[in-house]
Amino acid sequence: xxxxxxxxxxxxxxxxxxxxxxxxxxxxxxxxxxxxxxxxxxxxxxxxxxxxxxxxxxxxxxxxxxxxxxxxxxxxxxxxxxxxxxxxxxxxxxx
Length: 95
Hints:
Elements (H helix, E strand, L loop, with lengths): L2 E3 L6 E3 L13 E7 L6 E8 L6 H19 L5 H16 L1
Antiparallel strand pairs: 1-2, 3-4
């Protein structure tokens, strides 16, 4: 297997180069402006979606993440085990 499809966005991603350790811990909206035919684009503005500026898009993302969470952790066990697992993940982030 050399590529997988991201279940959140549908993008094809190389397994060999996939490393989420440097990913942004925010959901950023980026406005771009074209530089002319064949010259690419430049970033005009970046802002966080988490500030509530686009609640509809945030809700779509949130709903999709809930589906993915259920897909990945449906066999965690009862609610107590699941809460303990989530607490363990939170502690790992702090360290």
